[in-house]
Amino acid sequence: MGTALIYDVEMTRYKLLWVDPACKIEVPERLTVSYEALVRGGLADRCISVPVREATDEEILLVHSEEYLEAVKKTPYMTLEDLKEFTLQYGDVYFHPNIYHCAKLAAGSALHLVDSVMTGKVRNGMALVRPPGHHSMHSAANGFCVFNNVAIAAQYAKQKYGVKRVLIIDWDIHHGQGVQYCFEDDPSVLYFSWHRFEHQKFWPHLRESDYDSVGKAYGAGFNINVPWNKVGMENGDYLTVFCHILLPVAYEFCPDLVLVCAGFDSAIGDPEGEMCATPDIFAHLTHLLMNLAGGKLCAVLEGGYNLTSLSQSVCQTVQTLLGDPLPRLSNLSAPCKSALESLQCARSAHRQYWSSLKYAADAPTSEISTKRIKLAEKEDERPEIGEEEKSPEEKVWPEPPQRVSPPIHTASVLPNDVVCPGGCQPLTSSEDPDPLIVSKLKENFLKDADDSDAFTAFSNLITLIKKMEMNQICNGLALVRNVTTAMMCLIQHSAATPGNRVLVVCVGNGKIPSHVTSDGKTLLVHISSEDRQEQKSKYYIPLCLKKGCSDMSGFIHSVFGFLLPLGYEYDPSLVLLVQMPDSGVCDSMWQQLIGLLRSFAQGHTLVLMQEDEKALVDLTASTLLGEPALPLEQLQAPPTEDVKTLEMLRHRLQTEWKLLQTTVPPESGGADEL
Ligand code: Q7Y
Ligand code: ZN
Fold it and tell me: 224 C-alpha to center of ligand 1: Å?
């Protein structure tokens, strides 16, 4: 089960033939540099190359009108003057004698990608196409787009494969109004788009790009717009929106297929977007979507006009689809006020439709609608681009570091009577354990036991995390006699190495000595049903759920609302995932949790489970190896009690953990300053 890559040089064979400042950025090199970067990085070779094909008339008509198709069909025979004239009836688009051919290939590429994924030839894939698609409408070309590649693909998947629910994520910096119009009243397609909006001052200047366009009739709730009202949004702003609205709703929607309108004009350096998110953010956005729909994900290129930023972002996306470890996101900033305002508005507009947002706060108080078009904008904490400031294209950012896969992917430390799962490597330490470690172990953890089995297991675990530190092993799992002791031992050991930061995620009831987190070298998040735990420090966070880990919706609510944002902000070098005895967590939830935690620490996760959890070994190993998690069942609303406890906790923690915020902080004086 590999990753498909679709590209054909034919789609570079059209270009702007006259002077038009609005269109000059859409150049053939966008495709060639992206593809060449994939080749240079050794990524193209690792993909399964899928040939392009033309979309048929019938397929194009799934979205477009006959008159429009017939009109476009004539363009290859037009003179330059005719083409210019034809172009004039649409907005921000150009025609060329070969664009019709390319547009058929672009749509056909998206369809072929869907075929490859739906028939199981590949797990996921990306299509590098021109022209883009998300702006084109039933009867109109628009914004460089001729046919709506992704919208056609969604209709096709429903029709040909009986797909019941399609999720479309549009991370391009423009609003894909064409996609919105196509599925506005259709509850089988959930469309999510964030886009530069600036209170409607940014192209395409549509009232319906705002957060309050939520879909119509049966489709109400299935259109999610998050407008950016400032430029300069950063990684933290993007992740905040993923954690606090997109992911909870996407999991609740439970799609059978995920399509991405993968435009990279939302990355730093882009002259259109003017945002500041770095190319490595797309590795994370991609990863966070890869456990939906059993991993069936098709990314189709849309915009992206800074050739450097574009090609780096494409590489990050494809490398993630291939399953390589994720880069650590450093310097993650807190979300800005404007982003929080947009998030708060979108969450409140959707809370009546999604149980995961049921208790979202009201939109900020002030008639935002009257502020939609503002003549004078006050300064936010992010500076506007002034004269002495760099224009977006002169922005510099470091090239994303190489993402190297360790020679061993998944290692295991298992009792003798447990078979090592396929693909895993049993850890055998040839070297004698460090005498210092031996004495420490004896002193602290194996006091009264002269138990050589336990001793070997412990020193194997220490070897395992050392090898993860040296990037010789990506991740691992272990069955141990006592998970708490093993966890304490590893925390203590890890804290001894300067620079280490361990995120410990404990699932299930059990006592944990509180002193472990006093030094900030460990962040412990404990999900359980035991209320007696007090929050003792910034680094010890008990999430108490009424039914502990056995209630799926409460659990997932805390994973997206707390665990993910905390993990991103903490930026650990190692993740320890500990399942306490009788945790009650179900198989699919366990796999989802493991899958999501791979976002951190370059995938360095060690899973600790109690010795008798033999049934979990295969399941755990397969997810650590990169198999997509089992999809969850459709979720219910989390218990009100849980939501209340979690919101109280958020209230307390969000001053120190900025990525937990879902609302504009009150001390900023409300919307007047926004
Ligand atoms: C379409 C697009 C598709 C000139 C402003 C012109 C052009 C808008 C078309 C963008 N500075 N705006 O990128 S993804
Ligand atoms: Zn765009």
Answer: 22
Q: In angstroms, rounded to a whole number, what is the distance separating the alpha carbons of residues 72 and 54? A: 15
* Model confidence band, residue 512 (pLDDT cutoffs 50, 70, 90): confident
- Give the domain extent around 564: 408-638
Pairing of strands 605-610, 425-426: unpaired
Question: What pLDDT score was predicted for residue 666?
Answer: 82
| Residue 69, in any domain of the structure | no
Mean local confidence (pLDDT), 572-599: 95
Residue 488 lies in a domain: yes
**Segment 442-453, tens digit of pLDDT:** 777 666 555 677
Nearest ligand to the C-alpha of residue 142? 1
* Number of domains forming the structure of the chain: 1
- For the segment 377-417, what is each residue's pLDDT rounded down to a tens digit? 444 445 555 545 678 888 899 999 999 999 999 999 999 89
Strands 223-228 vs 189-196: parallel, antiparallel or unpaired? parallel
Residues 6+ apart with CB under 8 A from 483: 510, 578, 579, 580, 581, 608, 609, 610
Give the torsion sign (CA, 235, 236, 237, 243).
positive
Q: Does the residue 471 lie in any domain? A: yes
Which residue, by CA, sits nearest to atom 10 of ligand 1?
A: 143
Specify the DSSP class assigned to residue 244: I
> Which percentage of the chain shows pLDDT scores above 90?
76
Give the pLDDT confidence score for residue 54 in this predicted structure: 98
Ranges of beta strands (E only) in 211-296 are 223-228, 257-262
Contact (Cβ atoms closer than 8 angstroms) between residue 309 and residue 260: no
Q: Which ligand is nearest to the CA of 173?
A: 2
Residue 655 corresponds to which tokens in the numbers above? Answer: 């001053």
List, for residues 328-382, the tens digit of each pLDDT value.
997 799 999 999 999 999 999 999 999 989 989 999 986 554 455 554 444 444 5
pTM for the full predicted model: 0.95
493 is catalytic: no
Look up the CATH number of the domain holding residue 602.
3.40.800.20
Instruction: Report the number of secondary-structure helices (H) and strands (E) in the chain.
Output: 20, 16
Whether residue 632 contacts residue 547, with contact meaning beta carbons closer than 8 Å, is answered with no
Of all atoms in ligand 1, which is nearest to the CA of residue 22? Answer: 6
Q: Per residue in 92-130, is it b (16+ CB within 10 Å) or e — as a string?
A: bbbbbbbbbbbbbbbbbbbbbbbbbbbeeebbbbbbbbb
**What spacing in Å lies between the alpha carbon of 309 and ligand 1's midpoint?**
17
Asked whether 272 lines ligand 1 (CB < 6 A), one says: yes
- Using DSSP, state whether 91 is helix, strand or coil: strand
Closest-lying ligand 1 atom to the alpha carbon of residue 271: 11
Q: How far apart are CA 271 and CA 453, in angstroms?
A: 61
Spatial CA neighbour of 595 closest among 282, 164, 286, 191: 286
Within a domain: 670: no
CA atoms of 296 and 290, how far apart (whole Å): 7
